[in-house]
Specification:
Oligomer: single chain
Number of strands: 12
Number of helices: 6
Order of helices and strands: EEEEEEEEEEHEEHHHHH
Length: 286
């Protein structure tokens, strides 16, 4: 058996598109790259349940014109719509991920793996899909383009409200934008989430203080405030990692990681909660 040679270069996500039959009816993938020392993952969210007739996926090295992986979508599912790819063994090159859709077309994700220690000057952000918010709930629309209420989402939100009333649990107020991180210190949720993103960043900024990056983005913040903020978000990070460990031990369901994270830290974005849950589960399974 050939031993895998690790390639620690980071991945930059490129164009996400659909091709082939019924391309405009397939929905759009969402993806992110998670990178930490000697470990890395490409995480992909399908627009619908992965066990509902999806065929194969392929990872193609475009430069070598070689198929690196070719297997069933269900082999890579982690849950109902999330696919996980260990990319540590991929050498630096240009790649495309193709996923066969039940309607005949393909989801396509282009990405580039860089050489180790190379940092691209201007990473390409993945643009949010039109009509989608910071959530993994599917948004359906009628013939006039109006959103159709998601009955599953409504039922879940009502159930959470009832649980809160029965057990006297205070559920998060999703309309609040300012949150107290210390006595007499409130900050906007976007600032707190940005601090969490910086604090949990990997690569060249792994475990480095967030002060310079935060002051560059929010020059109005004092160093003392950033000190308090960094301590606060690291508690949130540890809390989610602990939930992920409990999930891997079979004590809670995967969906409970984000639910409990939002209950404890109502300001946290779905993107941060999902990203940290993925990192935590990866570590717990090592």
């Amino acid at each position: 058996m050939t031993e895998m040679i690790p390639h620690n270069g980071i991945i930059e996500l490129g164009t996400i598109e659909n091709t082939g039959d019924n391309a405009d009816q397939l929905g759009i993938l969402q993806a992110q790259f998670v990178h930490y020392p000697d470990c890395q993952q490409l995480q992909v969210w399908l627009p619908e349940y992965g066990g509902n007739g999806y065929g194969n996926y392929r990872i193609v090295d475009k430069n070598a014109q070689t198929i690196i992986e070719n297997a069933l979508v269900t082999d890579k599912l982690s849950g109902s719509i999330k696919m996980l790819f260990d990319t540590l063994g991929l050498p630096d090159s240009d790649y495309v991920l193709e996923i066969d859709h039940p309607k005949g077309g393909k989801h396509v994700l282009h990405f580039q793996k860089f050489a180790e220690n190379f940092i691209p000057e201007k990473p390409k952000p993945i643009e949010p899909v039109a009509g989608k918010s910071d959530t993994l709930w599917q948004v359906y629309k009628d013939g006039f383009g109006n959103p159709i209420p998601n009955e599953d989402q409504i039922m879940r939100e009502n159930a959470q409200k009832q649980i809160g009333e029965i057990f006297n649990i205070t559920m998060p107020d999703v309309t609040t934008t300012q949150f107290e991180i210390a006595p007499n210190l409130k900050l906007h949720k976007d600032i707190i989430n940005q601090a969490l993103t910086f604090s949990s960043e990997w690569g060249e900024n792994f475990q480095k203080p967030i002060h310079d990056r935060m002051q560059q983005k929010y020059p109005e913040l004092s160093l003392e405030t950033i000190d308090i903020l960094q301590t606060y978000v690291r508690k949130a990070e540890s809390f989610i990692y602990n939930l992920a460990e409990q999930c891997c031990l079979g004590k809670i369901e995967e969906v409970a990681i984000k639910t409990n994270a939002h209950r404890q830290f109502p300001w946290i974005s779905d993107q941060n909660a999902s990203r940290l849950a993925g990192i935590g589960m990866y570590y717990a399974n090592k």
